[in-house]
């Protein structure tokens, strides 16, 4: 995922970095929260598919940009969305006013390639997806969820981001291209059968201290990632990332009660990026800090 973050550094040399997912272990997408001064951004050929979301915009400013000869001028108010597919040459980007908070979401090629396997023909995100001022509440809400995870990490964050990346790419493909997504083969339309579910749950339990991905777990069930996520939810009533997050918190409870591991060791064992992130997630679920819980054991 390093190249995704290199793209942000190269494209926005004057922007301040407020938060990044670089150390989170996300595999489906990358995200950066930046603050942008009024400026002209250097010419660049986009190396990644990018979704830009004005978290806190301006009152009267605009963003002017030109990609592959197409000029767009858009008010930079809060909630504004821009799309820029990979390969578009932007030779003009001008911000007339400073924008306090902008979320940049970068989509790796493998997400689009995975979607091609389910499409009637190969999916291509080309210059026709170069959009400004996109009025799409679905994309906006996904961006807000990504922002929430970026600001406050949860136990199942990396899995949630992988899932949201798939949903985001599928939505953009279905809404803004002429591709039609089809289910190939018989697939699984209902819940996971008990044999597969037990195998998946055992695998999750044995690997809670590793960087599990939905794709990896789906392979245990011998299903595609898309079919697996749907079938797993039908079987257990929650998404794979939510289930794994709950199991990791339960693992943390057991470690707090029965081990002499430090809080930071438990945090990393349960795949949090820091002790502080672990403490916040623990307090949200149980109403007390890990240290308070341990002292009460």
Describe this structure in words.
The protein has helices spanning 2-11, 109-116, 137-151, 157-176, 194-206, 214-220, 225-236, 240-258, 263-269, 275-286, 290-296, and strands at 16-20, 30-36, 39-41, 44-45, 49-56, 62-67, 70-75, 81-84, 89-95, 99-107, 131-132. The strands form 2 sheets. It has a 6-stranded antiparallel sheet with strand order 1-2-10-5-8-11. Strands 3, 4, 6, 7 and 9 form a 5-stranded antiparallel sheet that branches. Helix content is 44%, strand content 20%. With 297 residues, the chain is of the alpha+beta class. Mean pLDDT is 87; it is low at 180-189. It has 3 domains: 2-176, Jelly Rolls; 194-237, Orthogonal Bundle (Arc Repressor Mutant, subunit A), CATH 1.10.10; 250-296, Homeodomain-like (Arc Repressor Mutant, subunit A, Orthogonal Bundle), CATH 1.10.10.60. Strand 6 (62-67) and strand 7 form a beta hairpin. The chain starts with a helix and ends with a helix. 38% of the residues are buried.
């Amino acid at each position: 995922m390093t190249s995704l973050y290199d793209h942000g550094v190269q494209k926005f040399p004057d922007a301040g970095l407020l938060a990044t997912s670089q150390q989170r272990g996300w595999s489906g997408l990358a995200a950066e929260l930046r603050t942008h001064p009024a400026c002209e951004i250097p010419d660049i050929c986009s190396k990644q598919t990018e979704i830009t979301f004005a978290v806190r915009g301006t009152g009267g400013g605009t963003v002017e940009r030109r990609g592959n000869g197409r000029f767009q001028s858009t008010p930079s108010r809060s909630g504004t969305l821009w799309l820029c597919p990979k390969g578009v040459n932007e030779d003009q980007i001008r911000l007339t006013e400073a924008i306090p908070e902008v979320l940049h979401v970068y989509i790796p090629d493998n997400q689009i390639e995975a979607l091609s396997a389910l499409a009637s023909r190969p999916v291509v995100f080309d210059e026709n997806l170069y959009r400004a001022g996109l009025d799409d509440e679905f994309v906006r809400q996904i961006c807000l969820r990504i922002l929430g995870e970026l600001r406050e990490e949860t136990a199942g964050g990396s899995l949630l981001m992988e899932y949201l990346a798939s949903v985001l790419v599928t939505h953009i493909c279905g809404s803004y291209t002429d591709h039609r997504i089809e289910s190939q083969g018989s697939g699984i339309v209902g819940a996971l059968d008990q044999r597969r579910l037990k195998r998946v749950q055992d695998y999750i339990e044995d690997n809670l201290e590793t960087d599990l991905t939905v794709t990896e777990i789906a392979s245990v069930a011998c299903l595609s990632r898309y079919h697996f996520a749907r079938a797993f939810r039908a079987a257990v009533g929650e998404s794979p990332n939510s289930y794994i997050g709950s199991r990791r918190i339960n693992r943390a409870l057991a470690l707090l009660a029965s081990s002499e591991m430090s809080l930071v060791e438990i945090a990393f064992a349960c795949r949090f990026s820091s002790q502080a992130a672990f403490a916040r997630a623990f307090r949200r679920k149980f109403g007390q800090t890990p240290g308070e819980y341990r002292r009460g054991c």
